[in-house]
Design goal:
The complex is a heterodimer of chains A (605) and B (458).
Chain A lengths: L1 H5 L2 H15 L17 E6 L4 H6 L1 H5 L3 E5 L2 E6 L2 H6 L1 E6 L2 E4 L2 H5 L5 E8 L3 E3 L8 E10 L20 E6 L3 E6 L2 E2 L4 E6 L3 E6 L5 E2 L4 H6 L1 E6 L4 E9 L7 H34 L7 H5 L15 H23 L3 E6 L12 E3 H6 L9 H17 L3 H6 L1 H16 L8 H20 L17 H5 L7 H15 L9 H8 L6 E5 L9 H5 L6 H4 L16 H5 L6 E5 L2 E5 L2 H4 L4 H20 L1
Parallel strand pairs in A: 1-3, 8-16, 17-18
Antiparallel strand pairs in A: 2-3, 4-5, 4-6, 6-8, 7-8, 9-10, 10-11, 10-14, 12-13, 12-15, 15-16, 19-20, 20-21
Chain B lengths: L1 H13 L14 H27 L8 H12 L12 E4 L6 H6 L3 E4 L5 H7 L9 H12 L3 H4 L1 E8 L2 H13 L2 E5 L7 H22 L5 H25 L8 H11 L4 H21 L10 E6 L8 H8 L3 E6 L5 H4 L9 H13 L12 H13 L3 E7 L3 H17 L3 E6 L6 H31 L1
Classes of the chains: A alpha+beta (605), B alpha/beta (458).
Chain lengths: 605, 458
C-alpha cells in the first residue's frame, strides 16, 4: 500500500524518461567543443639571438626547440633559421603518426588527436659545459588541453621517431620513456621554465616525482645523457588555460548559455504562474505582490551576520579552492578523493572527487589494489569525518544553487513550497538517480554526460569540456533551485549515497525534544524538507539521510538549545532565542534614544 | 460612532423579520436604568480587582501605564488609546494574526472578556453550560456599553472551540463578523497550507475596514513591530526565570492583559522600561519573593481581567506565580514569526505557521506539545506546583487535564485542578484549596530540603 502511494504514475514516467534520456545522453549535444585540432594553426617562429628571450626561455637556450601556445595558435619556437628549416613536425592522428606539411600546419586536419612532436636532426654541441662535445638529439612535444583528463592511456608517439618521450598522465605524473620502455632509476636533467635546471632521478616506473603543477604548466625539458655520450633533449608543453583570456571565456560559453536559457525559463515560469494566479479569486489580487513587483520593503529585524554568514564564507572559499586550488598552490592531491560534485574533469582542482570513480565503477578492475584501497579509504574517512557536511558547506553545486535561491530572495519572488507528500514522492527519483549514477558505466554509458556539475567546475577553471544532456539538466537544476531551494540536492545521487551512511558520520543534528515547541520553523526553513526534525519527540539525534548539515534549522530555531549541530558530540552551534532575535537590538537602541530625548524635552519644559 | 450605528441599524433591519425587538433604537427609561446599573456594577468590580492588583506589593513603577490601560478600559469605560482615525478590529483567541491588522492600518483589540457583570447578563443569552467567557462577551455585546466592543468595525472570530463557533454565529447577527477557520489539526502539512489560504481570504475583509491595501512593505513593517514586542517579551521572560522572583506573576498577567488593549508599539516601549527596571532590581537584589516561597505556575483556561482571582489568591496566600501558560498570557505573544522566505507569500506562510503550529490551544486534535511546553516551563522557571485552571464549561482544557496530571506525576510536580466561574461565590472555596496546595508544596519542600542539602554536601 505504501509502495503504491510512493510510485505514482507521474513519478514512474519521470524516472523512466530520465533513464531513457540518460542512456542516449551522449547523443543529446548541448554544446560541443571540438576534440580535435581543427581550428588551431601551427606556426614556426625563430627566436632571434636576443639575450632577453634567451634568458627567459631556458629551453630555447638548451635545445632551441619548444612549443608555446597563443590562443588558437601553436607556436613552434626554434633557435635559428637553420633549425626552422630542418625541423620536422609529426602529429598523432587517427591513422597513426603522420608528418605534418606546411598546408596542414596552417589548417589542421580534424584527424589529429592533439599531440605533436617536433624533431631536429642530430647536432654536435657541448650542452653541459664540460668541454666535451656530444651528439645531441633535440625534440619538443606538446599535448593540447582536450587530450588531458581521464584518458585510459596518455598520448604516446612511436619511439622510432625519437627515443626519448615525456608522458603526462592523468594530470598528475610526468614519466619518461626511452625506446618505448620506462626510463627507470636514471638521473636526468630537468629544466623548468620556473625553477631552472635540476638533477632528478626517476623512480621504478620511470616517473619523476615531486613536480609542481605550475612547473609542468609552464613548460619543462628533460635531458638524458646516454652512457655512450649521446644526449637526448625533449621539451614538453601542455596547453595551459590562462584565466580571463578569450580562450577562458570561450570555455565558459556553455555556462553562459545555460544561465541565459535559465533566466528565460524562469521568466517564462513567472509569466505562466502570474496568468494562473490572476484567475484565482482569492490570490488573484496578490499576483503582483507575490511576484515581487509591488513596492519593495525589507524585513529590518532580520539578523544580518551569524552562522549563515560563516557558512557562506566557507562555501565561497571552498568553491575557489576546489576549482582553482591546483592552479594556485601548484599541487594537487589526486589520491584523496572526497565525495563531492566538484567535477574532477577540471584538472586544476586541489583534490579529486570520488564521483568519477563511482560513476566509472567498471574502471576499478583496471586499478591496482593500493589505488582501490586509497579510494575506498578516503571515501570512508570523508563519510565519517564530514558526511553530508560536504553538501551544505563545501559543494560548488550547492553554492550555485544557493546563489540562485538568494537572488530570488532578493527579488522577493514567491517560491515553491513542497509538502511532505511531494518530498516522499522524490524517493523513487532519488533511487533512480543513484542507480543511474552507479550503473550506467556497466551499460557503456556515462553518468558524466548527465551530471550537471560538469558544466560548472571545469568551465570556471577554463577547461573546454563538451556538454551533453548535462547542459539541459543544468538548466532544469537552475530553474528548479530558483524556485525550490537546493533543488538538485534533493535528488543528488552522491549526496544520497553519503546520506545512506549517515549513521557513522560525526556531524550530527541534536534536538532537545522538551524545549521544542513544534513551531515548525525548522521544517519551513529546511531545504530538504525533513519533517522529523520538528515532530521528533523521543530521540535526541535527528540526523537523517537527507540532512545536508546546512544549519538552516538551527539558525531559524527560536528556542534556547532546542536544536544544535554537533561534531564528535561537541555541540558547536546551538539555537538560542537571543541570537535569533538579535536583529531587534537595533530597534531597541533606537527606542532608548527616543526615550532619552523625550525625557529631556519633558524636563526642559 | 454614527457610522457604526447606521451600519448596525442596517444589519438589524435585515434581521428585522426574525427579531422585531431589535428595531427599537430608542431605549425605554427602564432599559436606560438597567444599563446604568450594569455599568456601575461592572466598573465597581473591575475597580476592586484593579485596586487589589495595585495593592499587591512589589509592583514596579513601570507597571503603572499598564494598570492605567486596564483602568481606562474597565473602570473609566474608555475606548482604547489610538490615533484619532484608526479603525479598531476586534479579535478573539490567539490565532488571529495581529500583523495583518496592523498592516492595513487598523488596531487589533482582543475582546475575550473576564467581566463578572457581563457574565450575569450573558447567562440569559446563551445555554447554561456555555463557558463564562462567551457569556461575558455576549453580555457586553447585548448591553452596548463597552466602547471597545462598540467601536469595533469588524470582529474576527477564529473557529476554535464549540463555544467560539456558536458565538461567531451570534455575533454575526449583531455586528460585522468574520469567522476565521482554523485547522483542527496541525500534524499534516495540508492543515498549515489551508490556514495560509484562510489568511489570504481574511485580507480583503480587513482591507474593507480601513480602505488601505496590504503591501509587502506594510506587512514587513508590522511583522517587525510585533517581532520587537516579542523581543522585549523574551527579555521579560528571562527576568521572570530569575530565582528569587523579580516581579509578581499577577502583575505579569496584568501586563499581558494590557497587551490586548494597547497599540503594540506603545506596549513594547512600556515593556522596555519595565525590563530596565527589572534589570535594576536584579542588580540591587530587590526581590519580590523570598527564597522559600513556593513557585507556582498557572495553566489552562484563559485568565482575563477582571477575573484574576486565581493569580491574586496564589500570591496573597504566599505563593509566587512564575509561569503562565494561558492564552491570555504568555502564549499569545511567545512564539515569534520566523520569516524563512522573503517573498510576500513567504511572509504569509510564516504568519500562518506561527499562528498554528506552535499554538498549544487544546482545540487542536493533536496537542501533545502543550505537555512538553509545560514541562519545559517547569524546568526553566523552577516551578514547584502547577495550578490547572478550568473555567466551568471549558471542556477542551478539562480533557487535557488527565494526561498532564499523569505526566507531571512522573516528574513529581504536584498539580491541582481548580474549576471556577465568573463570580465571586466560589472565592472562599478557592482560597482554601489554593492555600492547602501552597502549604503542601511548602511541606514537600521542607521534607526535600535535607535531602537536597545532602546531595549538595556530597
Amino acid at each position: 500500500m505504501k509502495l503504491k502511494k510512493l510510485f505514482t504514475l507521474p513519478i514512474i514516467i519521470t524516472c523512466i524518461v530520465f533513464a531513457v534520456l540518460s542512456f542516449f545522453a551522449y547523443n543529446i549535444v548541448f554544446f560541443n567543443f571540438s576534440t580535435d585540432a581543427s581550428g588551431y594553426t601551427m606556426t614556426t617562429a625563430v627566436n632571434t639571438q636576443d639575450e632577453n628571450i634567451q634568458q627567459e626561455s631556458i629551453q630555447a637556450a638548451s635545445t632551441g626547440l619548444s612549443f608555446t601556445y597563443d590562443n588558437n595558435q601553436i607556436i613552434l619556437n626554434t633557435a635559428n633559421n637553420q633549425d626552422a628549416a630542418n625541423v620536422k613536425v609529426y602529429a598523432l592522428s587517427i591513422n597513426g603518426v603522420t608528418e605534418m606539411t606546411p598546408q596542414n600546419m596552417a589548417v589542421m586536419n580534424p584527424d589529429y588527436l592533439g599531440s605533436f612532436i617536433a624533431t631536429l636532426p642530430e647536432q654536435t654541441t657541448d650542452i653541459d659545459g664540460d668541454g666535451m662535445s656530444k651528439t645531441v638529439y633535440a625534440a619538443a612535444k606538446t599535448d593540447m588541453a582536450f587530450t588531458q583528463g581521464y584518458q585510459p592511456t596518455a598520448p604516446t608517439f612511436d619511439h622510432e621517431l625519437f627515443p626519448l618521450e615525456i608522458i603526462f598522465t592523468d594530470r598528475t605524473t610526468i614519466s619518461v620513456l626511452f625506446n618505448g620502455e620506462p626510463l627507470a632509476n636514471q638521473t636526468l636533467t630537468l629544466t623548468s621554465q620556473r625553477s631552472g635546471a635540476n638533477q632528478v632521478t626517476t623512480n621504478a616506473e620511470g616517473a619523476i616525482e615531486g613536480l609542481s603543477l605550475l612547473d609542468i604548466r609552464n613548460g619543462i625539458a628533460v635531458t638524458y645523457v646516454e652512457d655512450d655520450g649521446n644526449a637526448y633533449v625533449m621539451s614538453y608543453q601542455v596547453e595551459d588555460n590562462t584565466l580571463l583570456s578569450t580562450r577562458y571565456l570561450s570555455a565558459l560559453t556553455p555556462f553562459f548559455i545555460i544561465i541565459a536559457l535559465s533566466i528565460i525559463g524562469i521568466l517564462l515560469c513567472l509569466w505562466l504562474r502570474k496568468r494562473v494566479v490572476e484567475k484565482d479569486p482569492v490570490m488573484g489580487r496578490f499576483s503582483d505582490e507575490r511576484m515581487g513587483l509591488g513596492p519593495m520593503g525589507t524585513m529590518k529585524s532580520q539578523r544580518k551576520f551569524g552562522f549563515m554568514a560563516i557558512r557562506w564564507i566557507i562555501m565561497i572559499v571552498s568553491f575557489f579552492t576546489l576549482i582553482y586550488g591546483g592552479k594556485l598552490l601548484g599541487q594537487w592531491y589526486s589520491n584523496i578523493a572526497i565525495p563531492i560534485f566538484a567535477c574532477p574533469i577540471n584538472q586544476d582542482q586541489l583534490i579529486a572527487s570520488s564521483c568519477y570513480t563511482l560513476a566509472h565503477l567498471n574502471l576499478l578492475v583496471s586499478m591496482n589494489w593500493q589505488e582501490i584501497a586509497i579510494f575506498f579509504g578516503s571515501l570512508l574517512i570523508s563519510l565519517v569525518v564530514l558526511g553530508r557536511f560536504i553538501c551544505g558547506f563545501l559543494c560548488p553545486m550547492g553554492l550555485i544553487q544557493d546563489i540562485t535561491h538568494e537572488s530570488r530572495q532578493g527579488l522577493k519572488i514567491e517560491g515553491l513550497s513542497l509538502t511532505e507528500k511531494l518530498y516522499s514522492r522524490l524517493k523513487p527519483i532519488k533511487w533512480t538517480m543513484l542507480l543511474l549514477f552507479l550503473g550506467l558505466c556497466f551499460v557503456g554509458v556515462n553518468f558524466c554526460d548527465i551530471c550537471p556539475a560538469i558544466t560548472v567546475s571545469p568551465a570556471f577553471a577554463g577547461f573546454k569540456v563538451s556538454v551533453y544532456l548535462s547542459g539541459f539538466f543544468m538548466i532544469v537544476v537552475i530553474i528548479g533551485s530558483f524556485f525550490k531551494r537546493r533543488f538538485f540536492c534533493n535528488i543528488c545521487p552522491l549526496g544520497y549515497l553519503m546520506g545512506l551512511g549517515h549513521k557513522i558520520s560525526l556531524f550530527r543534528i541534536k534536538k532537545d525534544c522538551q524545549a521544542c515547541t513544534e513551531c515548525g520553523a525548522c521544517y519551513e526553513a529546511c531545504p530538504m524538507g525533513i519533517k522529523t526534525i520538528y515532530t521528533e519527540r523521543e530521540k535526541n539525534d535527528v540526523t537523517t539521510a537527507d540532512c545536508i548539515m546546512c544549519g538552516e534549522c538551527i539558525d531559524k530555531c527560536p528556542e534556547n538549545k532546542a536544536l544544535a549541530m554537533s561534531f564528535c558530540g561537541v555541540k558547536f552551534y546551538q539555537a538560542s532565542r537571543k541570537t535569533f532575535m538579535s536583529g531587534h537590538k537595533k530597534t531597541e537602541k533606537k527606542l532608548k534614544r527616543l526615550i532619552k530625548k523625550r525625557d529631556k524635552n519633558e524636563s526642559d519644559q | 460612532m454614527s457610522l457604526i450605528n447606521n451600519k448596525r441599524n442596517n444589519q438589524e433591519k435585515n434581521n428585522s423579520e426574525k427579531n422585531d425587538e431589535n428595531i427599537v433604537t430608542e431605549r425605554s427609561p427602564v432599559e436606560e436604568r438597567q444599563r446604568q446599573r450594569f455599568m456601575d456594577k461592572a466598573t465597581k468590580v473591575s475597580g476592586k480587582y484593579l485596586r487589589r492588583l495595585e495593592e499587591l506589593n512589589g509592583a514596579p513603577a513601570a507597571m503603572q501605564p499598564f494598570f492605567k490601560v486596564l483602568k481606562d478600559i474597565y473602570v473609566d469605560m474608555k475606548n482604547v488609546e489610538k490615533p484619532a482615525d484608526t479603525k479598531i478590529v476586534g479579535t478573539y483567541c490567539v490565532m488571529v494574526p495581529h500583523e495583518l491588522i496592523y498592516a492595513v492600518g487598523a488596531q487589533p483589540v482582543k475582546l475575550c472578556s473576564g467581566s463578572y457583570t457581563a457574565f450575569s447578563i450573558g447567562d440569559d443569552l446563551v445555554p447554561r453550560d456555555a463557558c463564562p467567557l462567551i457569556k461575558a462577551v455576549m453580555g457586553f455585546q447585548a448591553m452596548e456599553v463597552m466602547p471597545i466592543y462598540e467601536a469595533c468595525e469588524l470582529m474576527v472570530v477564529p473557529i476554535t472551540c464549540d463555544c467560539k463557533k456558536k458565538m461567531a454565529g451570534m455575533l454575526k447577527e449583531m455586528v460585522p463578523t468574520y469567522s476565521l477557520h482554523v485547522p483542527t489539526s496541525k500534524s499534516d502539512d495540508d492543515d498549515m497550507e489551508q490556514y495560509v489560504q484562510e489568511l489570504y481570504q481574511l485580507i480583503p475583509e480587513l482591507e474593507k475596514v480601513t480602505g488601505n491595501t496590504i503591501t509587502y512593505k506594510s506587512l514587513a513593517k508590522s511583522i517587525d513591530q510585533m517581532g520587537f514586542a516579542q523581543y522585549e517579551m523574551s527579555k521579560f521572560n528571562d527576568y521572570k526565570k530569575h530565582v528569587p522572583a523579580l516581579i509578581k506573576g499577577t502583575h505579569a498577567m496584568a501586563l499581558m492583559n494590557a497587551f490586548s488593549y494597547m497599540p503594540v508599539d506603545k506596549w513594547s516601549e512600556q515593556l522596555h522600561l519595565l525590563n530596565e527596571e527589572l534589570a535594576q532590581r536584579k542588580k540591587d537584589k530587590a526581590y519580590v519573593s523570598k527564597d522559600k516561597q513556593p513557585r507556582i505556575m498557572v495553566t489552562g483556561s484563559p485568565i482575563i481581567f477582571p477575573n484574576i482571582k486565581i493569580p491574586l489568591l496564589i500570591e496573597e496566600m504566599g505563593g509566587i506565580l512564575v509561569g503562565d501558560e494561558t492564552c491570555m498570557g504568555e502564549r499569545s505573544i511567545y512564539d515569534p514569526t520566523v520569516v524563512v522566505d522573503q517573498s510576500f507569500d513567504g511572509l504569509m506562510r510564516s504568519l500562518a505557521n506561527r499562528y498554528t503550529r506552535p499554538c498549544t490551544c487544546p482545540t487542536f486534535v493533536d496537542n501533545n506539545q502543550r505537555i512538553y511546553r509545560i514541562k519545559q516551563m517547569i524546568k526553566d522557571h523552577q516551578v514547584q506546583g502547577v495550578v490547572y485552571h478550568v473555567l466551568r464549561g471549558c471542556l477542551v482544557y478539562d480533557f487535557e487535564y488527565q494526561t498532564l496530571e499523569d505526566e507531571l506525576g512522573k516528574l513529581g510536580v504536584p498539580v491541582i485542578r481548580v474549576e471556577s466561574d465568573y463570580n465571586e461565590e466560589d472565592i472562599e472555596q478557592l482560597r482554601i484549596r489554593i492555600e492547602a496546595f501552597i502549604e503542601l508544596i511548602k511541606l514537600k519542600d521542607l521534607a526535600m530540603r535535607p535531602k537536597k542539602q545532602e546531595i549538595a554536601g556530597e
